[in-house]
Amino acid sequence: MTIFVTGHKNPDTDSISSAIVYAYLKQQLGMDAQAIRLGEVQDETAFALSTFGFEAPQFVEKAGEAELILVDHNEFQQSIDGIEDARILEVVDHHRVANFETADPLYMRVEPVGCTATILLKLFKENNVEIPANIAGLMLSAIISDSLLFKSPTCTEQDIAAAKELETIAGVSAQEYGLDMLKAGADLSKKTLEE
Amino acid sequence: MTIFVTGHKNPDTDSISSAIVYAYLKQQLGMDAQAIRLGEVQDETAFALSTFGFEAPQFVEKAGEAELILVDHNEFQQSIDGIEDARILEVVDHHRVANFETADPLYMRVEPVGCTATILLKLFKENNVEIPANIAGLMLSAIISDSLLFKSPTCTEQDIAAAKELETIAGVSAQEYGLDMLKAGADLSKKTLEE
Ligand SMILES: [Mn+2]
Ligand SMILES: [Mn+2]
Ligand SMILES: [Mn+2]
Ligand SMILES: [Mn+2]
To answer: Which one of A6, A24, A45, B161 is most buried, counting C-beta atoms within 10 A?
Structure first.
């Protein structure tokens, strides 16, 4: 059975990237994993996806009887509709834990860092899986997005160190690429009044 | 401020051992950590403590304003009284997650294995901290206890592999020592009618 890897509703760049990246890692480890998304891809994220050659994950509305891996969130109200009835196999996240429960033991990796991708970098290393350049690019995009190019108060030493490593693998400059990506997200010409 | 490391109420050998062991690891990493316990030490656990030369952790009844690390549990009703008002810095556990929440991001390491000590072994390695023989002995005791000497259906390949490693470091035979420990816990002469 396919196991779906999903970020939160109103997905940001970390939620989309980490779903793709962790599904990739799980595939390398032999799991039939597939990234999904719970909402529209934002302009910033679309820029990251197209720079590194990825399609947006499939949009899914309801959990059904799926087996799930949650990334970048754990609270049920931020997750896929119907999650109460789904089986949650894993969580990889960097937020507080609340409004979350499982019936069975699971793998849960929550760390007080600035971005899910920073934790995913550890998981690649722990599992001895090589990180391709484009996957590194997505992870770097997530860290730049969550840390606002390392300026957010939630950004930790670990996020900065992870970004340095990923920069080298991805073959881009975090500062240059990061500014372009954040600009793509801030492009006011496309925004509606509501935003 | 001292950070208290605690297992669950009605502590078993994993809860007592993992509190002592994780407090030790945290001390090696520079944290002012201290193991505590939330109830009486059982005979089986007393046998493990005395074999490897440890005192029982201090008994504590209420959380107060403490900073806490939870091992071998996460559900609040199994934890220290007043935990709702405490600050939970970390959780290392192998049970389902439920009835648990924090106000802030934390470190949470939950894995679907048979014993907390199996996860702690990974944390020693990830942090490059050497495991002294007596600490290995406590970890081995926890795995033997939770897995009923590798016979419980909750026992995983990882628990068996961890026990093999710890056996060598501790310098005891899991089978021989394990039987003695389980026998110490099953000593009916000391049991009251209630038990
Ligand atoms: Mn997010
Ligand atoms: Mn995030
Ligand atoms: Mn226990
Ligand atoms: Mn246990």
So the answer is: A6
Contact A104 B97 (CB under 8 A): no
3-class secondary structure for chain A?
CCEEEECCCCCCHHHHHHHHHHHHHHHHCCCCEEEEECCCCCHHHHHHHHHCCCCCCEECCECCCCEEEEECCCCHHHCCECHHHCEEEEEEECCCCCCCCCCCCCEEEECCCCCHHHHHHHHHHHCCCCCCHHHHHHHHHHHHHHHCCCCCCCCCHHHHHHHHHHHHHHCCCHHHHHHHHHHHHCCHHHCCCCC
**ipTM of model:** 0.93
B95 touches chain A (CB under 8 A): yes
Instruction: Give strand pairing partners of A58.
Output: A36
- In 3D space, the residue among B107, B142, B130 whose CA is nearest the CA of residue B18 turns out to be B142
**Contact between B98 and A94 using a beta-carbon 8 Å cutoff:** no
Q: Mutate one of B110, B128, B154 to test the A interface: name it (highest A CB count within 10 A).
A: B110
Q: pLDDT tens per residue, chain A (195 residues)? A: 899 999 999 999 999 999 999 999 999 999 999 999 999 999 999 999 999 999 999 999 998 888 999 999 999 999 999 999 999 999 999 999 999 999 999 999 999 999 999 999 999 999 999 999 999 999 999 999 999 999 999 999 999 999 999 999 999 999 999 999 999 999 765 555 444
- State the distance from the centre of ligand 2 to the C-alpha of A56, rounded, in angstroms: 17
Whether residue A100 lies within 8 A of chain B, CB to CB, comes out as yes
Q: Is B8 on the interface with A (CB under 8 A)?
A: no
Which residues on chain B are in Cβ contact (under 8 Å) with A115? none
Q: Please tell me if residue B9 touches chain A, with a CB cutoff of 8 Å.
A: no
- In order of A47, B108, B129, B179, the CA distances from A106 in angstroms are 34, 12, 26, 30
Rounded to the nearest angstrom, the distance between the alpha carbon of B138 and the centre of ligand 4 is 13
Whether A103 sits inside 8 A of B109 (CB atoms) is no
- CB-count burial class (<10 Å; 0-12, 13-18, 19+) for B54: buried
Distance CA B144, CA B41 (A): 17
